Write the structure tokens for this entry.
Amino acid sequence: MAKLTVRDLDVRGKRVFVRVDYNVPLEERDGQMVITDDTRIRETLLTLRLLIERGGRLILASHLGRPKGKREPSMSLRPVAARLADLLGRPVAFVDDCIGPKVEQTAAALKDGDILLLENVRFYPEEEKKTIRPLRKSWLLWRRSM
């Protein structure tokens, strides 16, 4: 049996949850966090473009660094959203959380080909533990409600 790949999926009009590796190096310059190597972002472009072209409504989740389950502004994925938008040549919505009402509302408003990047999942202590039940439960409930 052949492996199923993203090319085999009919994603038109569907929300596509993609876990990406955007754990990119950042450094502070003039009070702003700046990406010093965007290789990991560039490596996702082929897949993301394919899903966009096929009308998927992309919801991207990633971690960045090790904030130990606390909000750490220097480890926000906001600069990644901006860089991804530059590389794709299209807007990338960003929500400063990865679960909850803001995420649900923004995801519900996505149109075919839109992209939403969620905030660093490691801002929740459950993400770094071997059990992520609270996050998984929230995502499953959110998925059912959409």
